Amino acid sequence: MRQLDADPVIRARDTAFRLLTRREHSCAELHNKLTARGYDSDVVGDLLASLAAEDLVSDHRYAQALMSHRVSTGYGPQRIIMELKDKGVSAEIIEQTLSSAEVAWDELLRVQHNRKFGGSKASSFKEWARRAQYLDRRGFSTDAIRRVMGSWDHATLARDDSGVDINA
């Protein structure tokens, strides 16, 4: 029998298996992909319940996998939280995943800073802000950025680019 003639439930299950063999998916992400391919939402919902009961799809496992990958590529907790929310993972699972993670976020931030900018300190406020914005986009909090990079010395801000004190 050709695949086009097969039962939609069987075809949806086969498609889900093909997607899951490539990588983990959240339930919501898998639901969106299957419905986008034309499978009925009720069929997909029943299929996902069946796959979850068989532990073939798991938001916990997906969250762990995504977090592990993102940490290894140097992303911070805020970026990881945003991505997990975008993929439909519940706030409870996100919280459990982050709290069970043994990640030294400040050290990861320091490594990312040194990888991108070397060990040098910023020579101007503009440079400091550029570095802070880069780390912010990577998903690190403002407090963590200040802890690692330090706050910009406001006495330095009182000088213009030529080094002349503009408050004098």
UniProtKB/TrEMBL annotation:
Keyword flag Cytoplasm: yes
Domain RecX third three-helical per the UniProt entry, residue ranges: 107-149
Subcellular location as annotated: Cytoplasm
A cellular component term, taken from the record's GO annotations: cytoplasm
Domain RecX second three-helical: 58-98
One of the GO BP terms on file: regulation of DNA repair
Residues annotated as domain RecX first three-helical: 12-48
Keyword Cytoplasm: yes
Keywords: Cytoplasm
Family from the record: Belongs to the RecX family.
Protein name per the record: Regulatory protein RecX
Source organism of this protein record: hydrothermal vent metagenome
